[in-house]
Write the C-alpha cells for this entry.
Amino acid sequence: MGRRSDEKSVKLKTGALALFGAVLLSTYPFDPAYEASSTDIFNIFEDMYIMDIMDLDLQKEKQEEVFEEVFKSEDIPKHIEEKITGVSWNENAPVGIKDLKYLTVTYVGFDQKRHTGELVVHEKVADEVIDIFNELYQAGFEIEKIRLIDEYGADDDLSMADNNSSAFCFRNVDGTKSLSKHSYGIAIDINPVQNPYIRNSIISPQRGAEYEDRKNMRPGMIVPGDTCYNAFKSRGWTWGGEWNTMKDYQHFQKKIDM
C-alpha cells in the first residue's frame, strides 16, 4: 500500500478516535478542575496523527536504508558451484568453473521496485556485463526477474515461460547438435516474453505472441536504439533481433577469444 493510502488510513483512524473522545465527554463526568472539550480531544488526536505520519516517513527511510544496490563480480562461490554442477554446468562443458564468474546485480522490476538478480557469465565479459546492468538500472529499464537458470532445472523453455533473464547454461541450440553461446557464458537473454524468439510460425515463449508487433512499444521490450540495445551494442555484442533467418529479440551474444 502506498504513502497516500497509508495517510488516508491514519486520518480515518484519527477522526474516529476524536469522535469517540467527543462522545465520551458528553457521556461521562470528568474532573471539573479540567474543563476539557471536543476541541481539546481533537487536538490530542491530531498530534497523534502527525506522529503517525512521521512514523510512516521513518519506516520508509528504514526500508530504503535496508536495500543496498549491488553490482558485483566474483569467482564462483562454493555454494553456487554446488548448485549449478550437474544442472547448468558439468565436466563436459566447454568452459570450466574457473572460467566463469558469478554476478550480483540490482535491477528495476516491472513493479517499479529495486531487486537483486544473479547471473553466471564468462570471466572475459564479466566486467562489461556488470557495466551493462548498471546502465540499465540507472536508466530504469524494467526487467521482470534475473535468476540462475538452475532454478528451472536448466530448462530454457521453463525459464523463458517464466520471463526469466539468464546467461550461462551448457546446452545445444534448440533443435540442433551445435552448442549454444550460452554454453560459453557469452550470451544473455533479456525479458523473453517481451522479446520472444520468432522463426516462421514458431514463437517462444508462447506468451511472447502478444509482443510480435515490435512497433507497439511496452515496458521491457528491446528495439534498435533503446537503452538496452545501446548498452550491449556499444560494447560489441550481437543482437538476435537483427538476424535475417529468425528473430531472437531477447538474445545478445559476444564474440571473444577463448
